[in-house]
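Lecture 7 notes: from sequence to structure.
We start with the chain below.
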Amino acid sequence: MILHPGARLLLGHWQAAKGERPAPARGDLDLRQLRRQAPWLFILEPAGGASSFTYRLAGTALCGFLRKEMTGADALDGWPRFERAAMARALGAVTARLQPAHFRIRFLTDRGQRIGADMLALPMTARDGHSVHVLGGLFPHGNPEIWSYDRLVPADLAGLRLFEGGGDALGARPPAQAPRKFRLISGGLDLP
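Predicted structure tokens for the same chain:
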């Protein structure tokens, strides 16, 4: 199941944009509806084979989290051999078979902190109308503003799931309304 609410919102937007098609076109996506998630989004394109993917676009929060500019970089750089191979196969399925994928991944900071994250990889038709790119988002668990580190390295792949079709199988459900812990009583300054 997808834990991070940002990943669930991205999935919901992707599902709405694609409609009955297997994948939406890039022009169908409206990032205005994903204002808070947009800095964590990326677009990958296959680069010279099924085992290599390059960041075509990487959001500012993603680059800040990884502590380097990612646009143009190898998306699987730094991952251990097993994880790199598994992730490449899954990303290959996203682009070749239009199968959405969900990754549960962990990073290690230079100060020994382990940071978990949800990564969503969704097929998207490129602007040329023929190529398939990966629309994705990397959503760290916890508050990135409180972590203090200079370098972050990929540690391991805690989970990987490919999904047939794209909707209900992904476990997407609208976020539940949080129960209110207080009750608003009319009167006082709320009246004109």
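Points to note: The mean pLDDT is 86. The chain has three helices and six strands.
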